[in-house]
């Protein structure tokens, strides 16, 4: 168990991104009652994971449906160039990003122009990361989506504000 320090306490109190979950359980100090505490903890964690996964799955299905509707109304896109321009124009409300994709390149945060690069090495910027950071900075939401649930092949899907 990690020692509680002022620094660790400050980290725990810092603003966290959802989902943030606290799990509390009574513990026992003496044997034999304390033998069951780790088992109870594992069972609680398993139940919590199932609950969170169920809610995330339903939310993700809703977002994918919303993207389909938005795309059909031309208020959404999965085209990299269109999404980049919409991001810098502060038009993206929600950006879905493929969890297994990375697109080497850079984003001009003033014009929305994208510059693709050849290399996928760690020293090259990831365009999806740049787009996600920009959406968050402008008050939008970024949702990481498993590849098999992505509604596009491009690695991203945007739902526009207008």
Give short descriptive properties of this protein.
162 residues, two-stranded antiparallel sheet, alpha+beta, four-stranded mixed sheet, 40% helix, 6 strands, 15% strand
Please tell me about this protein's structure.
The protein is of the alpha+beta class and 162 residues long. The protein has 4 helices and 6 strands; from the N terminus they run ααβαβββαββ. It has helices at residues 6-13, 37-72, 80-88, 127-137, and strands at 76-77, 92-98, 105-107, 114-116, 141-145, 156-160. The chain has a 4-stranded mixed beta sheet with strand order 1-6-2-5, with helices on both faces. Strands 3-4 form a two-stranded antiparallel sheet. It is elongated, with a radius of gyration of 21 Å.
Question: Helices and strands in order, then pairings?
Answer:
Blueprint: H1 6-13, H2 37-72, E1 76-77, H3 80-88, E2 92-98, E3 105-107, E4 114-116, H4 127-137, E5 141-145, E6 156-160
Parallel strand pairs: 2-5
Antiparallel strand pairs: 1-6, 2-6, 3-4
Structural class: alpha+beta
Shape field? elongated
Task: Output the helix-strand order.
Answer: HHEHEEEHEE
Characterize the biggest β-sheet.
Answer: 4 strands, mixed
Percent of residues in helices: 25-40%
The count of strands amounts to: 6
Taken as a percent bin, the fraction of beta residues is: 15-25%
Give a short overview.
The protein has 162 residues and is of the alpha+beta class.
């Amino acid at each position: 168990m990690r020692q509680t320090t002022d620094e660790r306490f400050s980290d725990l109190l810092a603003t966290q991104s959802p989902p943030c979950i606290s799990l509390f359980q009574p513990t026992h100090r003496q044997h034999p009652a304390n033998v069951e505490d780790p088992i109870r903890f594992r069972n609680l964690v398993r139940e919590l994971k199932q609950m969170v996964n169920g809610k995330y799955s339903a939310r993700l299905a809703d977002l994918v449906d919303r993207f389909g509707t938005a795309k059909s109304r031309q208020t959404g896109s999965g085209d990299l160039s269109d999404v980049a321009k919409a991001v810098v124009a502060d038009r993206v409300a929600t950006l879905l990003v493929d969890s297994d994709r990375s697109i080497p390149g850079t984003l001009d945060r003033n014009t929305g122009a994208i510059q693709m690069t050849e290399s996928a090495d760690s020293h090259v910027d990831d365009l999806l990361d740049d787009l996600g950071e920009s959406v968050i900075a402008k008050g939008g939401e970024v949702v990481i989506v498993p590849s098999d649930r992505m509604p596009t092949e491009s690695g991203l899907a945007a739902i526009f504000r207008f």
